[in-house]
Amino acid sequence: MIQEGFELMVIGMGVVFAFLVLLVVCMTCSGMFFQRFSHLFREESPVEPPNGSPPRPPAALAAAVAAARRARQ
Fold first, then answer.
1. How would you write the pLDDT of the chain (73 residues) with one tens digit per residue?
2. Boundaries of every domain in the chain
3. Are the C-beta atoms of 55 and 49 separated by less than 8 Å?
């Protein structure tokens, strides 16, 4: 009975190991594919905020944070 359990353990671990090896091979192949054909898969431009206002520059955000901190003191 212990021998059967050991056989099942080895088979199970072998299946998991084979799956992980297959996963690494597939990920490597897909990475090479997308590197080679990256010019066909252009990224879309960033979407503007829903209210239509342009994004705030970092200086304006820093000024707003500083004003909020000063107002709390």
1. 999 999 999 999 999 999 999 999 999 999 999 889 888 877 777 666 566 666 667 888 888 889 999 998 8
2. 1-40
3. yes
Say if CB 41 and CB 34 are below 8 A apart.
yes
Q: Is pTM beyond 0.70 here?
A: no
Q: What single letter denotes the amino acid at residue 56?
A: R
Dihedral sign of CA atoms 5, 6, 8, 9 in order: positive
CA dist., res. 71 & res. 64, Å (int):
11
- Mention every residue, 6+ apart, whose C-beta is less than 8 A from residue 49: 55
